[in-house]
Specification:
Elements: H1 3-13, E1 30-31, E2 44-47, E3 52-54, H2 55-58, E4 65-70, H3 77-90, E5 101-106, H4 113-127, E6 134-138, H5 143-151, E7 153-154, E8 156-158, E9 163-165, E10 169-173, E11 179-184, H6 190-200, H7 208-216, E12 217-220, E13 225-228, H8 230-261
Length: 270
């Protein structure tokens, strides 16, 4: 069995219970959530066009960022994560490079920019829309490992199978490059992506609808998804009731005032 498929099965089914022995292939592998961590924007990579690029050049654009660690020759898991991400993003009306950005980084230092360009082309064909803000990077000077450690994405090279053991997760960043949220799995709810990105903007991209959604839904670390918060719904319902009653009373008072103003002046008293 390939290491990627084994890891996916272990993570998806949840067979690694607390206290259970960890297979050797999974030692040191996983995600350590580091919310609020500022990533090193001076780390350099090679873009899919073959040119050097600093991480900071892809951040600080006033948009949240989806950070995706993968390696382009991965036989299974990485492609499943990328395909799941692409499928979910197709359901959003937002465009990479306009409302948000995506940075996909290869964790394999042997992979060159040509492979990054090939992988980008394949994903954009599937995405079927322009995505000027989706960047595919190749490693440089082992900076992918440094960036992954900063983001809490731990992986290791398995010599026997000659593959990387890694988890399936996305890291959402604020526009200034701080870790805001983690989303797990190979299929991502477009709803979770939308709220995660909206939350990561720190109010810079929130519409009225997004405000209402974030009020009604909060991120549940255990469920690893956004869940409805009944308490906020009840509060919101109470506030809405008061608003509606106020609007009705205001309309009634205005109608009464207009009716009174339209009455003819009183005649002389006989």
């Amino acid at each position: 069995m390939r290491i990627c498929s084994f890891i996916f099965a272990a993570l998806a089914v949840g067979v690694l219970h607390a206290g259970a022995s960890i297979p050797q292939e999974l030692e040191g592998v996983g995600v350590e959530e580091k919310l609020g961590t500022a990533l090193d924007q001076n780390l350099e990579f090679v873009g899919e066009n073959g040119r050097p690029v600093r991480l900071g050049q892809l951040l600080n654009q006033g948009r949240p960022v989806i950070l995706n660690f993968a390696y382009y020759s991965c036989p299974m898991l990485c492609s499943m994560v990328l395909n799941g991400l692409t499928s979910s993003l197709r359901e959003l009306t937002w465009t990479p490079g306009k409302e948000y950005d995506i940075v996909t980084v290869s964790i394999d230092p042997r992979e060159m920019y040509q492979l990054a360009a090939s992988k980008k082309q394949a994903q954009l064909i599937s995405f079927d829309r322009p995505a000027p803000g989706w960047h595919f990077l190749a490693d440089y000077n082992d900076n992918a490992k440094k960036l992954a450690e900063q983001a809490g994405f731990h992986y290791r090279w398995d010599k026997q199978r000659e593959q990387y053991a890694h988890s399936a997760a996305l890291v959402l960043l604020t526009p200034d490059g701080k870790v805001a949220r983690y989303l797990y799995g190979i299929k991502f709810k477009s709803f979770d992506l939308r709220l995660g990105l909206t939350e990561a903007t720190e109010g810079k991209m929130r519409s009225t609808a997004d405000h209402l959604l974030l009020y009604c839904f909060q991120y549940d670390a255990l469920a690893r998804s956004y869940v409805m918060v009944a308490r906020n719904i009840m509060r919101g319902g109470g506030a809405l009731t008061i608003f509606v009653m106020g609007a009705v009373l205001m309309r009634f008072w205005r109608k009464e005032r207009d009716s009174f103003q339209q009455l003819p002046p009183p005649g002389p008293v006989l």
